[in-house]
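Sample log: Tocopherol O-methyltransferase, chloroplastic-like isoform X2.
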Amino acid sequence: MASVFHAYHSPLPYFPYKWQRSHPPRPSVSFPSSSFSRRCQSDARFMATRVKAAASTTPDGRALQVGIAEFYDKSSGLWEDIWGDHMHHGFYDPDSNVSGTDHRAAQIRMIEESLRFAGISEDPAKQPKRIVDVGCGIGGSSRYLARKYGAECQGITLSQVQAGRANVLAKAEGLADNVSFQVADALNQPFPDGQFDLVWSMESGEHMPEKAKFVNELVRVAAPGGTIIIVTWCHRDLGPSEESLQPWEKKLLNRICNAYYLPEWCSTSDYVKLLQSLSLQM
């Protein structure tokens, strides 16, 4: 089977890629990466400052994880009030008039556009039945996908508050038998090899300090012939004569990293190279 490459532009912009390999069957990968466009709320900046100070007292290997967990323990209620169930960007059509009231509908469009690009079949017999949501937030994607496909979905997050809230919402929506959430590390997932038809990572990869290990774990838990969808924040690809971003670009990204507990950013081409190194051909 020939492998496939696609790229298109949208207002954010997004740069999706897809890889596929048939012998032996490996997961296909769809990779729309999004640029940063969140508004920084003053309360969120204040909480980020507090949790950063707390994390600095822990061993280096755990500082980032502790900081992320505490940040979302403290701020998830705020995000839910502002964004609702889905803690990620929306997808906006080029000709649409964007309004604040449209954002929650745009978040659903983001999910649907990601599924469409990945080529998830509309045939019920071919739709995913076992899904993992890596960096699940309060479980909005998990519940949506479970309802859409009649699937079983497991979500993982570093935040105890998020996992608890996600399980409460799943029960309230009658999905407790199909959807569950737990605290776990995306770089060391508590699942056996090849368990999931669909591995879903919606705007969580930017928190991962070891991108190679992150991608390896996504591939490890994906079933042969399954699909991996990654939507993540990336900086622009470097030009042929560039060795790094411009100083002003680094300064801007560092401000975002400091506010949201993000390690160093990478580009879409960096992800492409990582995925190609795992025999996922472009």
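Observation: Residues 105 and 133 are 20 Å apart (CA to CA).
Observation: The radius of gyration is 18 Å.
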